[in-house]
Write a structure and sequence with these properties.
Blueprint lengths: L4 E5 L6 H15 L6 E5 L2 H11 L5 E5 L16 H6 L4 E4 L2 H6 L4 H13 L3 E6 L3 H5 L3 H12 L5 H5 L2 E4 L13 H18 L2 H6 L1 E5 L4 H8 L6 E4 L6 H12 L3
Parallel strand pairs: 1-2, 1-8, 2-3, 3-4, 4-5, 5-6, 6-7, 7-8
The structure holds 2-phosphoglycolic acid.
2-phosphoglycolic acid binds next to strand 8.
């Protein structure tokens, strides 16, 4: 049985003060909920403060939204895996569609980052997903397979099993247009089948695959009740501590 994993992707939102206000409410609301793994990905600037506030929580883990594949050196503006480890970061979101489309990240770059994350014992949350044009052209499986094979190249089974995959159809991100449970389930089942080919069936059985794209309290439970949907990567709704609490509780109630 795969434990559900819910991640908050705050994107470029919430200053340190705002992150603290979020946690004031969220930590009260969420209490001792441990039916699902909870991950919060603040902006780099708030990592330290959020780490401090989460230090007493064993169920909530910290994530970064990006990192460099380089270890150190003359890379102005970049942040390394070791620097994230310094701040008690455990997960890192990699290959998000905003990184791919706005910052030119290719599967090759994402692959270097995923491998660098594993080397530093950070768990990657690897995002994949098709655009609307690709879906309309019936290319969903081809796109997902290319992204998965490219981003996971050269990794061993143990590393792949410890990677979280986030299926995020680009047309559903921040649009309010959520994939239907059937559309999401079909994509997740295809991703799991592809992982069985890239690694092996036992890795495919173990790996957790989140859905992302306009997840809200009112659609979370139906999505996460699908057999191959193991959690959610939440953008907009994760900025509201009460909405995010409801989504975590929906996940925990699917167990
Ligand atoms: P959204 O974002 O929930 O606002 O659609 C999801 C994401 O980009 O991870």
């Amino acid at each position: 049985m795969r434990k559900k994993i819910i991640a908050a992707n705050w994107k470029m939102n919430l200053t340190i003060g705002e992150a603290e206000a979020f946690l004031d409410t969220f930590l009260l609301e969420i209490g001792e909920e441990s039916g699902a793994d909870i991950v919060i990905a603040p902006a780099f600037t708030a990592l330290s403060k959020v780490a401090e506030r989460l230090s007493k929580s064993s169920t909530i883990k910290l994530a970064a939204q990006n990192m460099s594949f380089e270890k150190s050196g003359a890379f102005t503006g970049e942040v390394s895996a070791a620097m994230l480890r310094d701040l008690y970061v455990r997960y890192v979101i990699l290959g998000h569609s905003e990184r791919r489309t706005l910052f030119g990240e290719t599967d090759e770059i994402v692959n270097k980052k995923v491998r660098a994350a594993h080397e530093a014992s950070l768990k990657p949350i690897l995002c994949v997903g098709e655009t609307l044009a690709e879906r309309d052209a019936d290319r969903v499986e081809e796109v997902l397979e290319t992204q998965l094979r490219g981003s996971l190249a050269g990794m061993n089974s143990k590393e792949i099993a410890e990677t979280v995959i986030a299926y995020e159809p680009v047309w559903a991100i921040g649009t309010g247009r959520v994939a239907s449970p059937e559309q999401a389930q079909a994509a997740h089942a295809f991703i799991r089948k592809t992982i069985a080919l890239i690694a092996d069936p036992s890795v495919a059985e173990k790996i957790r695959i989140q859905y992302g794209g306009s997840v809200k309290p009112d659609n979370a439970k139906t999505l996460m009740s699908q057999p191959d949907i193991d959690g959610a990567l939440v953008g907009g709704a994760s900025l509201d501590p009460r909405a995010f609490t409801e989504i975590v509780k929906a996940a925990a109630s699917c167990e």
